[in-house]
């Protein structure tokens, strides 16, 4: 998988390089978080070419050299020489300063486009590479608007037969997608979606191209202010089944294509445009199936590098699709009980490395257990003895314990049998601990769950008292946080057995 | 990392029936008359408001932030193996919810010890914390029950503080004498409640926190048997009268050094804490033997976090 291979190579450097790399990454991460808060989170990809080292030296040419190269391309008649000139130009464009120089030349893009469509395949390739470099430019002047002359051709070439060329066109288009709504409208009008559909069909055995299609599509649908037309167009295009067929990881090629397709599915599902259509085309079935496969892999200990990049979008897709209709209707697609086991396994496996992933996994469990007809899933959690695994997550913050408490609350709400089973699984002592936590929201949820348990059967209230839980409720009565104070008082007044007094001198 | 049961569940052979619809369903619903029926709470103003709810998260939801960042780092070729710099799950901290306390602890045991030591058996009138339920009862009776003083004029109302004794006396002094004579309590045992303790010279010098909200700050120094702490006050006579400037001496030759700070103070001396714990459990032991269990560490002053009521109580038991 070329992306992760590149990463591994970089990580292998020693010493100060690594420190610098880590520092750079931390800074970059902060930038990305800021960008996300401003709804400006955008990424572009640069395809590296075979004849370059990954962090190869850039021959930064002087501006007049760039101009000269371009003029040779413009006026050249000899195709072999032109190919060489284009290659040199492409290499020069690896340096961002050359971008500005080039676009200042009159008709620069038009010339590149001419070569893109020209008779010589090698010239086409080099011209495409030039455009690709420009699409990845850090300069705001080199934007999609400037490159728009190329798009009809790039889109047409998606139905072509050359994988390498197609891949370039795809990534170039993908880089252009996030720039503006106008660009996306233009691409839509020029037929990018049927072209992508065609492309993935033609090149379905070439996983590098499949990955590129996935990337481009994800860029198209994840951009902000996605117009009302893009996602319905995607849903109607026949792309969904093709994306779903990619969801079987190839052990040799790696996770790249599956990751891209999964993120596409996530963006489609969370837009909530027509999730019923997604489900009808089998999305829930395929995604849950893959999650089970990944759960099995995680259980066996084979946690492949980058696997979380795949688990994440799948969880999100499934989580949101669970709201697309009554759970009973979705059940045929959710019939593998190992899904529940996988949803409990991911938090255990990723708690320390990716706590947010653990939280999202529990979120999916919430959506499975909160519906009107969730009783079958709640029963299954007991049958498979998964509740203790959930209870063990209660000490952890980062939103994890709150989500777990939601799930436990959902289960308790099912009925008395469920409450008794929860108590059997050891929930009451765990609640005694969560009632003491610093986060008020945790305490609030704990009181809610506790209230439900005690109300369902008096023996649970007695058990709670036996576990020395009463002092906790009394303590909370003294809190200055009204939400928990009121709830604690309510529990003490309404749900504790009458012989139990507030003075707990008997209990230690 | 992964529990064995989970592993087994996921790697189960194909012969096991894994279908959800094959799993027996537990009965839904509550007993009639249960406060929570399946149709919701019957109480008009229900205090418990949780309802199971499926949650739809859109693309930009904050819950999705970490995953999005991870994805974009990957796209931009900057992901590394997760061992570097990822946010790790934090264990929740614990907080004391007693209003005005708001101390935070990293383990349940620390919190529980704090709570059991300081907040059990609290008098709701004067906020004093007593070491046991019985002493709390006696305290309330003697200090906050107006009927008590009326009755005390006519009958023996002051109970002996030693559990199991049962003797009652007409005055506090009589009780004190009884406890010294019969129960061998030391003569510098303090029987009277001391509500306010003015600053002692040493305390002023050693006062750590400025602008403390506590009215009084007090430093008890009991001299060690073997050595003197650097800033120890001069020894005074054993005197049964209570004066503010009296420094208790040589309680059974052991020493404890404590300083009461305002509510912000955090560190508890191990030995002192131990002794308070013991005190609250073994009410029948004479306080002498309890205090003898205290360890004094290296002549340093161990800061103790106590409420004002606690301190008064300690003094009441220790200082003449």
Q: Helical region count of chain A? A: 31
For the largest beta-sheet of chain B, the strand count, sense and barrel status come to: 3 strands, mixed
**Residue share in helices of chain A?**
55-70%
Secondary structure class of chain A reads mainly alpha
Indicate the multimeric state.
heterodimer
How many beta-strand runs of chain A?
0
Overall SS class of chain B: mainly alpha
Radius of gyration of chain A, taken over Cα atoms and rounded to an integer in Å = 28 Å
Trace the largest sheet of chain B across and list its strands.
7-8-9
Question: What best-fitting shape of chain B do the alpha-carbon axes yield?
Answer: elongated
The poorly predicted ranges of chain A are 1-14, 499-508
Strand content of chain A: under 5%
Mean pLDDT of chain A: 87
How far apart are the termini of chain B?
59 Å
The total of helices of chain B stands at 10
Using brief descriptors, characterize the structure shown:
heterodimer, A: 508 residues, mainly alpha, disordered N terminus, B: 320 residues, three-stranded mixed sheet, two-stranded antiparallel sheet, 10 helices, 7% strand, elongated, C2H2-type domain-containing protein (chain B), Znf_C2H2_type (chain B)
